[in-house]
């Protein structure tokens, strides 16, 4: 099977998936890593690992529709079975999300449905939450709302700031994102209406 991973920045989740794919011998390949930012740090890691890279710079397009159309054209050139959003920081149009329905995953650094959108760690700290975490979900038109594949919780500790909390959450991200992608690739995810489960009841 073929994966295309979309990034906007450092790409540590992309890196975790590339490494798990190799280390665990998935019958899958990362066909391409695509960034909307030419300076995304993760592009270098991908290129060094022999993975095709592409940049579709959102600043070169006058509308979200035009950007998404070009992005979809580039993605589909790699004929992926699954599109993986890994720190891809763009709002996507309904047409784009519909095109990749049930074959595009995202990772969001909160326990959804709490804290959709940006600055999740700051907001969790502000609320005095004692548990924080991360969610892998399928992407739908509504931001951070698609079917949940996997979640991991981490403790919030006294004295945490957004930096220390995000580091603890990120370590959990690097565990559950590769695992979620693996479940998809193994055809282990079963749909029940708008919800998705692991076929052996693991989630
Ligand atoms: C992660 O925290 C992810 O959950 C969020 O953006 C960050 C991306 O980090 N959406 P990286 O680029 O994967 O290192």
UniProtKB/TrEMBL annotation:
Keywords: Purine biosynthesis, Transferase. This is Phosphoribosylglycinamide formyltransferase. The lineage of its organism: Bacteria, Pseudomonadati, Pseudomonadota, Betaproteobacteria, Burkholderiales. SUPFAM superfamilies: Formyltransferase. N(1)-(5-phospho-beta-D-ribosyl)glycinamide binds at residues 11-13. Catalyzes the transfer of a formyl group from 10-formyltetrahydrofolate to 5-phospho-ribosyl-glycinamide (GAR), producing 5-phospho-ribosyl-N-formylglycinamide (FGAR) and tetrahydrofolate. NCBIfam families: PurN. Its EC number is 2.1.2.2. The record marks 144 as: Raises pKa of active site His. It comes from the Bacteria. It is an enzyme of class 2 (transferase). PANTHER family: PHOSPHORIBOSYLGLYCINAMIDE FORMYLTRANSFERASE (PTHR43369). Belongs to the GART family. (6R)-10-formyltetrahydrofolate binds at residues 64, 89-92, 106. GO terms for molecular function: phosphoribosylglycinamide formyltransferase activity. It catalyses: N(1)-(5-phospho-beta-D-ribosyl)glycinamide + (6R)-10-formyltetrahydrofolate = N(2)-formyl-N(1)-(5-phospho-beta-D-ribosyl)glycinamide + (6S)-5,6,7,8-tetrahydrofolate + H(+). Residues 1-180 form the Formyl transferase N-terminal domain. The active site is at residue 108. Pathway: Purine metabolism; IMP biosynthesis via de novo pathway; N(2)-formyl-N(1)-(5-phospho-D-ribosyl)glycinamide from N(1)-(5-phospho-D-ribosyl)glycinamide (10-formyl THF route): step 1/1.
């Amino acid at each position: 099977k073929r994966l295309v991973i979309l990034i906007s920045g450092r790409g540590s989740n992309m890196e975790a998936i590339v490494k798990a794919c190799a280390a665990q011998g998935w019958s899958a390949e990362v066909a391409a890593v695509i960034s909307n930012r030419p300076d995304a740090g993760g592009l270098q890691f991908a290129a060094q690992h022999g993975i095709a890279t592409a940049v579709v710079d959102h600043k070169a397009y006058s509308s979200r529709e035009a950007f998404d159309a070009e992005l979809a054209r580039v993605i589909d050139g790699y004929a992926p079975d699954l599109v993986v959003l890994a720190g891809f920081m763009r709002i996507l149009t309904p047409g784009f999300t519909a095109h990749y329905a049930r074959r595009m995953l995202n990772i969001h650094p909160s326990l959804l449905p709490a804290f959709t959108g940006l600055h999740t760690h700051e907001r969790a700290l502000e609320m005095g939450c004692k548990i924080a975490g991360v969610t892998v979900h399928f992407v739908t038109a509504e931001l951070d709302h698609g079917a949940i594949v996997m979640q991991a919780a981490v403790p919030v500790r006294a004295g945490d700031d957004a930096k220390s909390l995000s580091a603890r959450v990120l370590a959990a991200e690097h565990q559950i994102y590769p695992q979620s992608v693996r479940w998809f690739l193994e055809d282990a995810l079963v749909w029940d209406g708008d919800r998705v489960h692991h076929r052996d009841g693991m989630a």
